[in-house]
């Protein structure tokens, strides 16, 4: 089974955790050591292939062990199939949207990232990432229905997620200053839960303000208010 990571060691570690094996129990083949790229362009993750070694067992224990190995192998094959199916599903959806794109998948621990490459980045991202976020919800729902594994699905294009995180962190600090200077609570625009978490985390150590989420999905939003104000919301 193939695994990816920022470095070959990260990819191997991710694979061992996924397979629940030690390094001594697998054969490692380095397919690519990855590429850092220049200024974020041309970056490619490291790729390795892990093959579980066959273990010698006592003659009387051979059959049960073989059955366990077969079941584990089937689960790995099913997981790979689900990831491929999701990739084809996303390719089909974007094609119907009129967006030409290629997709790469990176599996790291409990996170699966589908990276899109396209000349129509704006159309795929949408205003404030709404289109990309909607596709991400569809992708998460697709994989959740296929597999019982608890993994997070992330869709990204042109490092948008990293840039969006920086934007939200800057916004959080600005809104916190406004809340303190004006002595009034500040309400942000509705955003998905994973973006609200970025706001909460950015202000977690700021003792002068407190944050909480309010409203109902999909219109749930973050409120930032002076620490001495009465909290009527819910985290």
TrEMBL record:
<dbReference type="InterPro" id="IPR039247">
    <property type="entry name" value="KhpB"/>
</dbReference>
<dbReference type="InterPro" id="IPR036867">
    <property type="entry name" value="R3H_dom_sf"/>
</dbReference>
<dbReference type="Pfam" id="PF01424">
    <property type="entry name" value="R3H"/>
</dbReference>
<protein>
    <recommendedName>
        <fullName>RNA-binding protein KhpB</fullName>
    </recommendedName>
</protein>
<dbReference type="GO" id="GO:0071555">
    <property type="term" value="P:cell wall organization"/>
</dbReference>
<keyword id="KW-0963">Cytoplasm</keyword>
<dbReference type="InterPro" id="IPR032782">
    <property type="entry name" value="KhpB_N"/>
</dbReference>
<dbReference type="InterPro" id="IPR015946">
    <property type="entry name" value="KH_dom-like_a/b"/>
</dbReference>
<comment type="subunit">
    <text>Forms a complex with KhpA.</text>
</comment>
<dbReference type="InterPro" id="IPR038008">
    <property type="entry name" value="Jag_KH"/>
</dbReference>
<keyword id="KW-0143">Chaperone</keyword>
<dbReference type="GO" id="GO:0005737">
    <property type="term" value="C:cytoplasm"/>
</dbReference>
<comment type="similarity">
    <text>Belongs to the KhpB RNA-binding protein family.</text>
</comment>
<comment type="function">
    <text>A probable RNA chaperone. Forms a complex with KhpA which binds to cellular RNA and controls its expression. Plays a role in peptidoglycan (PG) homeostasis and cell length regulation.</text>
</comment>
<dbReference type="InterPro" id="IPR034079">
    <property type="entry name" value="R3H_KhpB"/>
</dbReference>
<keyword id="KW-0961">Cell wall biogenesis/degradation</keyword>
<feature type="domain" description="R3H">
    <location>
        <begin position="162"/>
        <end position="228"/>
    </location>
</feature>
<dbReference type="GO" id="GO:0009252">
    <property type="term" value="P:peptidoglycan biosynthetic process"/>
</dbReference>
<dbReference type="GO" id="GO:0008360">
    <property type="term" value="P:regulation of cell shape"/>
</dbReference>
<keyword id="KW-0133">Cell shape</keyword>
<dbReference type="GO" id="GO:0003723">
    <property type="term" value="F:RNA binding"/>
</dbReference>
<dbReference type="InterPro" id="IPR038247">
    <property type="entry name" value="Jag_N_dom_sf"/>
</dbReference>
<keyword id="KW-0694">RNA-binding</keyword>
<dbReference type="Pfam" id="PF14804">
    <property type="entry name" value="Jag_N"/>
</dbReference>
<dbReference type="Pfam" id="PF13083">
    <property type="entry name" value="KH_KhpA-B"/>
</dbReference>
<dbReference type="InterPro" id="IPR001374">
    <property type="entry name" value="R3H_dom"/>
</dbReference>
């Amino acid at each position: 089974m193939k695994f990816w990571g920022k470095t070959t060691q990260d990819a191997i570690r991710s694979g061992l955790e996924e397979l629940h094996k030690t390094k001594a129990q697998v054969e490692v083949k380095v397919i690519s050591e990855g590429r850092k790229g220049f200024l974020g362009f041309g970056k490619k993750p490291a790729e390795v292939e892990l093959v579980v070694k066959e273990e010698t067992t006592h003659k009387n224990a051979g059959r049960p062990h073989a059955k366990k190995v077969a079941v584990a192998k089937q689960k790995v094959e099913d997981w790979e199939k689900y990831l491929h199916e999701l990739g084809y599903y996303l390719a089909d959806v974007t094609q119907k949207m009129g967006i030409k794109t290629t997709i790469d998948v990176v599996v790291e621990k409990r996170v699966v990232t589908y990276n899109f490459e396209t000349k129509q980045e704006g159309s795929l991202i949408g205003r404030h990432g709404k289109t990309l976020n909607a596709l991400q919800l569809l992708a998460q729902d697709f994989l959740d229905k296929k597999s019982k594994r608890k993994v997070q699905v992330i869709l990204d294009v042109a490092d948008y997620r990293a840039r969006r995180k920086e934007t939200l962190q800057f916004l959080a600090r600005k809104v916190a200053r406004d809340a303190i200077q004006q002595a009034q609570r500040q309400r942000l625009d509705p955003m998905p839960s994973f973006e609200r978490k970025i706001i909460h985390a950015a202000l977690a150590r700021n003792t002068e303000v407190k944050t909480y989420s309010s409203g109902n999905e999909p219109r749930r939003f973050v409120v930032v208010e002076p620490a001495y104000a009465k909290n009527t919301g819910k985290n």
